[in-house]
Design goal:
The strands form 4 sheets. Strands 1, 2, 10, 11, 12, 13, 14, 15, 16, 17, 18, 19, 20 and 21 form a 14-stranded mixed beta sheet that branches. A 7-stranded mixed beta sheet has the order 7-6-5-3-4-8-9, with helices on both faces. It has a 4-stranded mixed beta sheet with strand order 24-25-26-27, sandwiched between helices. The longest helix is centred in the N-terminal third of the chain and has 17 residues. It is globular. The chain folds into 3 domains: 197 residues, 3-Layer(aba) Sandwich (Rossmann fold); 159 residues, 3-Layer(aba) Sandwich (Rossmann fold), CATH 3.40.50.12780; 104 residues, 2-Layer Sandwich (GMP Synthetase, Chain A, domain 3), CATH 3.30.300. It is built from 15 helices and 27 strands. Bound molecules: adenosine-5'-diphosphate. The site of adenosine-5'-diphosphate has 22 residues, from strand 14, strand 20 and strand 21.
Length: 546
């Protein structure tokens, strides 16, 4: 028997597909719900109904000529209809391509044409955002509009009403048998450091990722949970939450177009969300709402944050003011995305500084993902919590290539080069100190822009801080701190605030007070814009010393 491959059992044939997830959710957790916020109340739809609607949508798409492998774009908020498309499209054997509704026109045109989307399902309220670019789409044959809106802006291609298409179909579409390794979903990176790059997920990778995110080491979500999915469904599959929800029976709270922090708080209060997931900017916005009116977040079991580093002061404020624990996670489009969540070890006392230190890690490695830290020569560094290098990952839901893009420099020996720099300790906690493109190279040493930002945000005078490297004759690069201040202060005072918290030579001598830190389409600090503003001489830079 030793080493013999087992062929007589069923396990190799059991398909790890999104259809398997959908059928499980609708049969076992048919009463769990997708709850879409309407501004002053919510629309509740059961998972049983979602599956029926997905069958109707699949039947309609088939009649419109969508076949196996065809990309179908979605240009939607997080909503019931978007969820139905999330399941209908891959389960019929086509590929759902989630379009970022905030992309600049040129990038949107590029990704639709690059993917060759055949049909686009668009939310009626987003028609004005799509209108300026429809004339440049080369592959789109028709649009399906969910909800109301002026469809004349879509040009001369056929336009169908989502509701009418579904009403005309029976829920009898037979889901086909699919190869678990076939393409199911595609998503482009959000383009923080360059142009968006396409990543395609298979049924199998989506399935395995969803199972893994349900571990108690990750969200541990169950059918007792109501999960507010603030992270957009076009941002790395909303971190896999819609798929994991059908596995665990978790009710999904979908904000629709009501994405202001105030509206999100209304939703939490009205529907008693137990989990909420969003980028740090959103969490910061919710805290601002709490500064203006009384808010009740007591239903939240915890919140998750990812996509960018979470400032410690923000985590502490949520804990202190609302008793809400925020757990940070790390991932990227290329990793489906989850690579780890920074849940503290079980023997650490909650509420202690040590516990908060763990929560400030970027994540604890998730089962299924392998990670290593390498030096610039590609040598593996020890897991000692100190040796700093580029993070490389591999695993069943880590991409091995980009859509249509040969980018050998992003891969190394079968591992994905993440472009993130960090450390790993001997218990699998990793800490991202920066992106390779953002770290400041000063006199042969690295200065972490993220660490400076995090510390600055801890000052009572600072609302937001983004640090970029600027050219320096002597040191190659030096940090420029771009800060939004809430109270009267000056660069010297802020530099003194930092001194002692980081090495003296790491304290920026260049400061610019700005109105707001520019953000990317998914709410991350857009340092490309700050660099361009600096280059164009648009930032008023003050120096604390020469
Ligand atoms: P983009 O690279 O265009 O921002 P992604 O949304 O895929 O697109 O972002 C992935 C990147 O986000 C990671 O490589 C990392 O730099 C950053 N990131 C994600 N989570 C964290 C985190 N918890 N702390 C710091 N950086 C993070």
């Amino acid at each position: 028997m030793a080493g013999a491959r087992i062929t007589s059992t069923m396990q190799d044939d059991f398909p790890l597909t999104i259809t398997t997830i959908l059928l499980h959710g609708s049969r076992v957790f048919g009463r769990s719900e997708c709850v879409t916020w309407q501004g002053d109340g919510a629309r509740h739809t059961s998972y049983r109904q979602i599956e029926e609607n997905a069958r109707r949508l699949a039947a309609a798409l088939t009649k419109l000529g969508v076949g196996p492998g065809d990309p179908v774009g979605t240009f939607c908020w997080n909503s019931q209809e978007h969820l139905e498309a999330y399941y209908a499209v891959p389960c019929m054997g086509a590929v759902v391509h989630t379009l970022n509704i905030r992309l600049p026109a040129q990038q949107l045109v590029h990704i639709v044409n690059d993917a060759q989307d055949k049909i686009i399902i668009v939310d009626g309220s987003l028609l004005p955002a799509l209108a300026p670019v429809v004339g440049s789409f080369t592959s789109v044959e028709a649009y399906i509009v969910a909800g109301e809106g002026d469809t004349s802006v879509l040009g001369d291609r056929p336009v169908y009403s989502y509701a009418e298409l579904l009403a005309a179909e029976e829920p009898s579409f037979a889901w086909p048998e699919l190869d678990e390794r076939s393409a199911a979903v595609m998503c482009y990176t959000s383009g923080t450091t360059g142009d968006p790059r396409g990543v395609v997920y298979s049924h199998r990778s989506t399935y395995l990722h969803a199972v893994s995110t349900l571990q108690s080491a990750c969200t541990g979500a169950s059918d007792a949970d109501r999960q507010l999915t603030i992270v957009p469904m076009f941002h790395v599959n909303a971190w896999g939450i819609p798929f994991a929800a059908f596995m665990a029976g978790t009710t999904l709270h979908m904000p629709g177009k009501y994405m202001t922090p105030g509206a999100l708080v209304d939703f939490i209060e009205a529907e008693h969300s137990t989990l909420a997931s969003g980028v740090p900017t959103i969490w910061a916005g919710i805290l601002q709402v709490g500064a203006q009116r009384e808010i009740n977040l007591s239903s939240l079991r915890f919140g998750t944050s990812g996509g960018a580093a979470m400032p410690r002061s923000l985590m502490e404020a949520f804990q202190k003011q609302y008793g809400v624990t925020i757990i940070q996670g790390w991932g990227m489009t290329e990793t489906s995305p989850v690579g780890g969540l920074a849940r503290p070890p079980a023997d650490i006392e909650p509420g202690t500084v040590e516990e908060m230190d763990y929560r400030m890690k970027s994540g604890r490695l998730l089962a299924g993902v392998q990670m290593r830290i390498v030096d610039p020569e590609g040598n593996e560094l020890p897991w000692d919590g100190e040796s700093t290098g580029e993070i490389e990952v591999r695993g069943p839901w880590i991409t091995a290539s980009y859509f249509k893009g040969e980018q050998p420099e992003k891969f190394h020996d079968g591992w994905l080069r993440t472009g993130d720099i960090g450390t790993m300790d001997d218990e699998g906690y990793f800490q991202i100190s920066d992106r390779l493109k953002d770290v400041i190279k000063s006199g042969g040493e690295w200065i972490s822009s993220v660490e400076l930002e995090n510390l600055l945000t801890g000052s009572p005078h600072v609302v937001e801080a983004a640090v970029i490297g600027i050219p320096d004759d002597k040191w190659t690069e030096r940090p420029l701190a771009c800060v939004v201040v809430s109270q009267d202060t000056d660069p010297v005072a802020l530099a003194e605030f930092l001194d002692g918290k980081v090495a003296h030579w790491q304290v920026p001598e260049n400061w610019a007070f700005i109105e707001e830190v520019p953000k990317t389409t998914v709410g991350k600090f857009d340092k490309k814009v700050l660099r361009a503003r600096f280059k164009a001489g648009e930032l008023d830079v003050k120096r604390t010393h020469d």
